[in-house]
Amino acid sequence: MKNFKRFLKYLVPYRKHQFLSILFNILYAFFSSISMLSLLPMVKVLFEEGEKLRVKPVYNGIKDFDLNYLENYLNYLITNMNETNGPLATLITIVGFVLSTFLLKNVFSYLSILYMTYLNNGILKDLRQDVYNKVISLNVAFFSNERKGDLISRMTADINTIKVSFMSVLMMIREPLTILFTLIAMIAISWKLSVFVFFFIPISGFLISKLSKGIKSQSGDIFSLEGHLLSNIEETLGGIKIIKNFTSESYFSKKFNDLTKNINNLNNSIGKVMSLSAPTSEFLGILVISILLIYGGSLVLIDKSLSGGAFMAYIGLAYQILTPAKAITKANHALQGGNAAYERIAFILDAENPLKDKPNAKVITEFNHEIKFNNVSFKYKDDFVLKNFSLTVPKGKIVALVGESGSGKSTIANLITRFYDVTEGSITFDGVDIRDVTTKSLREQMGIVAQDSILFNESIANNISLGIEETNEEDIIKAAKIANAHNFISDFPNKYQNNVGDGGSLLSGGQRQRIAIARAVIKNPPIMILDEATSALDTESEKLVQDALENMMENRTSIAIAHRLSTIRNADHIVVMKKGEIIEQGTHETLLNTKGTYHNLVALQSLEFN
Prior knowledge:
Elements: H1 8-11, H2 15-37, H3 39-47, H4 67-85, H5 87-137, H6 140-144, H7 148-155, H8 157-189, H9 191-212, H10 215-238, H11 240-245, H12 249-301, H13 308-349, E1 370-379, E2 384-394, E3 398-403, H14 409-416, E4 424-429, E5 432-433, H15 439-443, E6 446-450, H16 460-464, H17 473-482, H18 486-490, H19 509-523, E7 527-531, H20 539-553, E8 557-561, E9 573-578, E10 581-586, H21 588-593, H22 597-604
């Protein structure tokens, strides 16, 4: 239950629904007990129980308001109706009263569940939105350490589990009220019989709690395994070509089968407990009712201290307790699972973001002078991948970073966009440390075109205008023309409204890259970061993309990371990196003349020396 205390803040917007739900729950619980008590006059009419009472009982205040007074008053009403209207009319009247109480009970039941549903769905909507907002606010390093499938499982299946569990908790407000009103009615009829019920409830609760012990931990294990299962499915679908090419179907099938077996075993273990608890609680209830029948029957037949009608009403009330008691049992099991699910959700909600903006972070709106790396060192985990890196990128210049894989080039792009913070040193933007500015305003000054063109399963137009709230078709077309994408887009049946497919699967690599360039162009940032934007393309696509990149970089400050050196020959400054350090820097011609590492890289790629 302690995890559900965190839900209290989500209740605030739905106070009205909460109040109405509680109100209708109280009315439901009240009419649940009244509906059973209403059977008493019907029994009296049918079996003509008790002596005829023709004198109206005198009411002398609340002290006289007890079961005897009610029975006497009931006798008076029934006697009067019988003698005035006849027994059939009396029976019809009493049956109508009984029906009315049951109708009101069910109407209030419907209304209470309706407003509980509004409350529950609203809370879960807000929780789901908070979890999603937290996920997209976390730094990139968080996702490097977590399985995507497990995160998806936490954000979907676990939240649905919490929904079911929280609904059960809300229903637990109603069931105790039903039991309370029922017990009051039972005590009013016979306190002696009620002793058995009071004796039964704690014993039943104890036995059920023993049965449900361990469900929470097992539920947590299942949720974790289901997260792994979802990750396995996501990896399988993403790498299906590799799996088939390397004939690894049997390996992945066995891996999946092992996971499903473990989940199956845990589900069976929990199912065994849950399927046992309901019959156990029902049997205990019937056992007590059997004892009540024996003892209560003696009070009716031998002791004569209890009427047959009152005893039948009492048995009805006693049996009525079983339903809310079983509901509480089920709610307890759901609560255990919900607690486990919420702990997994809390993992996301409580995750710390080390890149969170400072309280007094500055908002930057323009780029005027330079970006400067001041003795920057950085490590992802243990080893430094960047060491004492110093570089100035003046406004309006193209600076290229080249070097072998793992030399730290892409790390520069990650640091300047503040996907990660430097371990040592600093990066300044017009003289201001980027850790002292808001991340949003920093990234608004930059456009990125990466090697992997990430497109979303939407229209081409929506992919180009991503993140731009107010765009028109003219702006989108203009950006596409700069990116050399307009011609191939115009060939599609729906042109700019054509869907790109999952991850852009309906487009070629060059087409995806040019749409990514158009997306960067329409943002119109003063700084462009090109992270190996042509390395995965064929020669013809590379030429088209390279032309698009040159169009895009015109009059902009650019940082180009490249494997193919043909794409950066015209850069104002080229930096050659090796093992996280700068080993050479200068223009294309200068570096060729030094006959060093850059010269060798150019020679390996068979470029023409100038």
